[in-house]
Amino acid sequence: MGCKQSAPETNTRSLTAEAAMADKLPEPAPPDPTDPRLPLDPRQVFKLKKSWKGIKRCMESTGVEMFIRMFRSNTDIKRLFAKFAHLKTEEEMRVDEVLEKHATTVMATVDEAMNNIDNVDFVLTLLKHRGNYHKKIPGFTSDLFWAIEVPFLEAVKITLGDRYSDNMDRIYRITIKFVLKTLVEGYDTSNAVS
Ligand code: HEM
Question: Which of 137, 156, 173 to mutate for ligand 1's pocket (most ligand atoms within 8 Å of CB)?
Fold first, then answer.
């Protein structure tokens, strides 16, 4: 699958030396608060960006897993995807290049949002634009965006394995809600975009 595990961090300094140094240092300034439109605090943003690096190495497999799980729990949705509606079994879906390409394109938008999560103006514009794009898809309605929420979380959990802690679960849940809510808002704005 080509997903590389991240190497464990090595620490060359001894703990005692580090503790002695820390004693002498002034308290670090608290990080700037995040934009109030973003439902994550600075620590959560830091953790999310760090964790997302593990997904970046496995974008295709995470995306395919997400789509397979979405189709598993919502069989009707597959009809919207003319390009791969004919695929019947999960085995067929796992090896289909067209599905993989689409899943990777969708993940690329999520990736762009994650990479810029603390640039809220940029993220809102990006996601609203992508959300609005779905207006031209026959049969699509904005409530369908939520069908990808749980599949996304499950796919991320599978890819991250042990690195998907309870805290990361909380952070990813908040983040995907923010992403989907913004896509819906973009869809619901009146003018269609290309
Ligand atoms: C994280 C959420 C989502 C993002 C970021 C997203 C993004 C995108 C993007 C970037 C495209 C254009 C792909 C291309 O040009 O090849 C697209 C197309 C499409 N999306 Fe989404 N999408 C999301 C969720 C969904 C969901 C939940 C559904 C269905 C329930 C859906 C249905 C579609 C369909 C039917 C197309 C057209 C596919 C085609 O080219 O035939 N999307 N989406």
Answer: 137
C-beta atoms surrounding 99 within 10 Å: 21
Which CATH number does the domain housing residue 76 bear?
1.10.490.10
* Domains contained in the chain, number: 1
Per-residue pLDDT of the chain (194 residues; tens, 9 = 90+): 456 544 444 454 555 666 667 677 787 777 788 899 999 999 999 999 999 999 999 999 999 999 999 999 888 999 999 999 999 999 999 999 999 999 999 999 999 999 999 999 999 999 999 999 999 999 999 999 999 999 999 999 999 999 999 999 999 999 999 999 999 999 998 765 54
Closest CA to 130 of 151, 154, 152, 108: 108
**How remote is the CA of residue 167 from the centroid of ligand 1, in Å?**
28
Tell me if 73 is assigned to some domain: yes
Which value, in Å, is the radius of gyration of the alpha carbons in the chain? 20
